[in-house]
Amino acid sequence: MKRIGRFLFCLLPLIITIVLQNLIIIPICGITLIVLALKNKHTGISLEALMQELFSLWSTSSFIIFVSMVYAIAALAIFAFWYRKKTAPLQERVSLKSAFNPWIVCALLLLSIGLQYVISYLMNFIGMLRPDWMQSYSDLIHTAGVDTPSALTLLYAVIIAPISEELIFRGVTFGYAKKALPLVGAVCLQAVLFGIFHLNMIQGIYAAFLGLFIGYLCEAGGSIAIPILFHAFFNTFGSLAGASMYHMEQPFFFLLWLTVGVLLTYAGIFMFQHGVRIRDMRSAGDSV
């Protein structure tokens, strides 16, 4: 029963994030409704026209990104406090100052590029099986403005979201999962919950796949800072590179870029393991 309770407690961060999103979006939407109503008070605008203007505002990429940023900042504050008070002692085996070396940073960069290629092919394969899922995902990306990134979008995707999401899933969720399950099970659970968090099938599947790698980086690296930096690299490359480079119609280029992705991913993992060994050996030598 105690283990079941611990397992159910692993779900609490995800539930809190969903509740928090609704707690934030409802008052923001209410404020915009009041502002627009006051703005058009003396114009004689009809209720139908007012609601059309309101829904047009709510569907803009700027509004969506703004709401996402407000939510992410609030989640960052909540889960940073939670992580430091409850789960950091279980996961922070190395200090932030000594967490990185050139090998580890280069490995995270290679992994972020390699996994972009691998995941893009995974998405394309799923899209072939379920075009409706891919269309829904494409519409979501377009509405959010991710396909044409602005400075605000990049700020959210590259800085705020990586810190917030890593604290939620590799910080708090993973910390509790390791109490309830064996390590492999804990890695898989936090990855699945990370996928569910994205609330659409295409993004959920690739986020869960990516979460397996990030869970490994967090555990092997011994610091939450490592998955945060990887997440920032991954989002940066995905935001700036765009989707056009992945859609190779000719079989030769399809296999070429898939091979490049797999090799870069393998090289990134190898370099990461090598970098962690060097870091830990130096730390052990300094402590003697």
Roughly how many Å is the radius of gyration? Answer: 21 Å
Overall mean pLDDT: 87
- State the total count of DSSP E strands: 0
Largest sheet entry: none
Counting DSSP H or I runs of 4 or more residues, the number of helices is 11
State the separation between the terminal residues, measured CA to CA: 44 Å
| Helix-strand topology string | HHHHHHHHHHH
Helix content: over 70%
Coarse structural class: mainly alpha
Proportion of residues in extended strands = under 5%
Uncertain runs: none
Mass-distribution shape:
globular
Explain this structure:
The protein is mainly alpha-helical and 288 residues long. Helices cover 84% and strands 0% of the residues. It has helices at residues 2-10, 12-39, 47-58, 61-91, 102-129, 131-144, 151-180, 183-197, 201-221, 225-241, 251-287. α5 packs across α6. 31% of the residues are buried.
Q: Which features characterize this protein?
A:
single chain, 288 residues, mainly alpha, 11 helices, 84% helix, globular
Brief overview:
By secondary structure, this protein is an all-alpha fold. The protein is built from 11 helices and no strands.
Task: Walk me through the topology.
Elements: H1 2-10, H2 12-39, H3 47-58, H4 61-91, H5 102-129, H6 131-144, H7 151-180, H8 183-197, H9 201-221, H10 225-241, H11 251-287
